[in-house]
């Protein structure tokens, strides 16, 4: 079952959007507002670096991916009351989206195999790196943006 993709927004941005000073365009020097401004600078820098990588001309053996852990999926997707008491499978999806001409890669696993601990997610990165290393020269460094 496919669902529409929604725009991810950070918790900091969501809270700031609801801030009364923000709604009234008032200046706020409170601790949280200062934190939001720092957050905004960081995500702006990150977005600019992402854009630069996306526009970069790649050598034939270079690969650049943007990596994102997708929302945990509960399968099968059910919304009727009768199905609330049926156990569902928890599925994890680590997406490696190519910024070049390569195909995107999705690494998926379910809770019966592994969870979402640091070691479990690291194994997804490791397997992608291992797979890519067989396709590029040994001298080439790989860049993964997460």
Tell the overall outline: flat
Work out the helix count. 4
Total strand count, please? 5
Poorly predicted spans: 1-5
Mean pLDDT: 76
Structural class: alpha+beta
N-C termini distance: 27 Å
DSSP helix fraction: 25-40%
Beta content: 15-25%
The ordered string of helix (H) and strand (E) elements is HHHEEEEHE
Rg from Cα: 20 Å
Taken together, the total number of domains comes to: 2
| Largest sheet descriptor | 5 strands, mixed
Provide the fold topology:
Elements: H1 11-17, H2 20-23, H3 31-55, E1 64-69, E2 73-75, E3 89-98, E4 105-110, H4 118-133, E5 143-145
Parallel strand pairs: 1-5
Antiparallel strand pairs: 1-3, 2-3, 3-4
Written account of the structure:
5% of the residues are buried. Strands 1, 2, 3, 4 and 5 form a five-stranded mixed sheet that branches. This protein is flat. The chain has four helices and five strands; from the N terminus they run H-H-H-E-E-E-E-H-E. It has two domains: 10-55; 58-146, no CATH class. Residues 1-5 have low confidence and may be disordered. With 146 residues, it is α+β, with helices and mostly antiparallel strands.
List keywords for this structure.
alpha+beta; 2 domains; 4 helices; disordered N terminus; single chain; 146 residues
In short:
The protein is α+β, with helices and mostly antiparallel strands. It has four helices and five strands.
């Amino acid at each position: 079952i496919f669902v529409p993709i929604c725009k991810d927004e950070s918790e900091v941005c969501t809270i700031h959007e609801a801030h009364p000073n923000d709604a009234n365009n008032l200046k706020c020097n409170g601790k949280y507002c200062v934190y939001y401004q720092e957050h905004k600078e960081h995500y702006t820098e990150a977005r600019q670096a992402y854009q630069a990588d996306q526009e970069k001309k790649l050598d034939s053996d270079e690969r650049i991916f943007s990596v994102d852990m997708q929302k945990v999926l509960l399968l099968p997707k059910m919304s009727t009351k009768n199905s609330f008491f049926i156990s569902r499978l928890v599925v994890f999806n680590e997406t490696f989206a190519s910024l070049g001409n390569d195909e995107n890669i999705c690494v998926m696993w379910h809770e019966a195999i592994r969870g979402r601990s640091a070691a479990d997610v690291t194994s997804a990165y490791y397997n992608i790196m291992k797979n890519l290393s067989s396709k590029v020269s040994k001298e080439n460094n790989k860049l993964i943006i997460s």
